Amino acid sequence: MKQHYSVALLVETSSSYGRQILRGIQRFIHQNESQHWIAVIEERDLNSGIPNWIQDWAGDGIISRHASDEIRKEILELDIAFVDLGDRQESGLFAKVISDDAAIGRMAGEHLRERGLSHFAFCGFQNEAWSDRRGSGYQEYLRSIGIEKVHTHFVQWCDQDAKGRDVSEVSLTQWLQQLPKPIGIMTCNDVCGKHLIDCCYKAGISVPESVAVTGVDNDELLCDFCQAPLSSVIPNAEAIGFHSAELLAKMLADQSLRSSIETVTISPLGVVARRSSDMVAVEDEDLANALRYIRSHANQGMSVAQLVEHCGVSRSTIERKMRSVIGRTPQQEILRVRLRHACTLLAGSDLAIDVIASKCGYAHPEYLHVVFKRELGVTPGEYRYASRNN
């Protein structure tokens, strides 16, 4: 017989990130065979905090994204099962499940480096731990490939009045104007990315030709509202929700686990490339032309022969230039682009695998299985399951 528990979900409904966390929690509830949860949920934003009714609430557990150090101490006094999803401050009072922000930064760095850029920058939010971690991961990746200089700028995020926003915009615009060009900029999230692209547009700085931009969260509505639709790293927020619910269920079943203070980090899924980073900053025109063509046509089933015909130079020339600059043959680059797109669709959509195969340029779904087993050691279905549960 199932045990019944009342669980409060204090997660913002105002952002795509929060809603994806809630979807992951919902998926766990539907799969939970030993417990029945009555979920208490209400409309919230990230600054809502812990509601007053919690102090007198006769519930069993809480999953929360809204926890300052003071509120965490109040929760301790309630002696209730609690999983902390807050990432705005460092804290060691409770078990946490959060995005692997360092991995997000590395992924953004890899994406921008693939554009052939030599100059890089990071724009983050002041006094936000998750933003700092993403910036650190980004800079560590760039240092690992020999790029020491990364320009940085920080702006205020929440609770900013109109005057403060104007000051922030002036400062950001001045910084953008002083940067070497072309340059790749990682912004800590899509809100920051849109703000930066707006400043570029007002200042007459072309995106992506002079400034290539990548955000984080893949908030599709926000990304598409940008003058140049914003490329974005996809955190696995649904997996965060699933793992937090799984952890809370263990605490509800075994009270001794409530004192756990482990931190689980969830890896990002990939990058959705949009126009804000759709550029190739390599000096060789033949190579730049080839790379642009591959990124535009790889998922349409293109061949190396078609690439050579488009570029108007010999196959040996294209082979030599690609090997010397990016370390891959044209065929390897086509495969890499297709495989990355397939991984993104498997992790971030519910499309059938045969549909994904078609969208990635494979005439037969069976060949997608062959490529996945050869390159990643798993089937497409196994990759989808692992991406949503790890």
UniProtKB/TrEMBL annotation:
Q: Tell me which domain of life the UniProt entry assigns to the organism this sequence originates from.
A: Bacteria
Q: Which residues cross the membrane?
A: none
Task: Read off the Pfam families from this record.
Answer: HTH_18, PBP1_XylR, Peripla_BP_3
Keyword Transcription regulation assigned: yes
Q: Does the keyword DNA-binding apply?
A: yes
Q: Which PROSITE patterns match?
A: HTH_ARAC_FAMILY_1, HTH_ARAC_FAMILY_2
| InterPro entries membership | Homeodomain-like_sf, HTH_AraC, HTH_AraC-typ_CS, LacI/GalR-like_sensor, Peripla_BP_I, XylR_PBP1
Q: Which SUPFAM superfamilies does the record cross-reference, listed alphabetically?
A: Homeodomain-like (SSF46689), Periplasmic binding protein-like I (SSF53822)
HTH araC/xylS-type domain residues are 288-386
Task: Give the organism the record lists.
Answer: Neorhodopirellula lusitana
For this entry, the protein name equals: Transcriptional regulator, AraC family
Q: Which UniProt keywords apply?
A: DNA-binding, Transcription, Transcription regulation
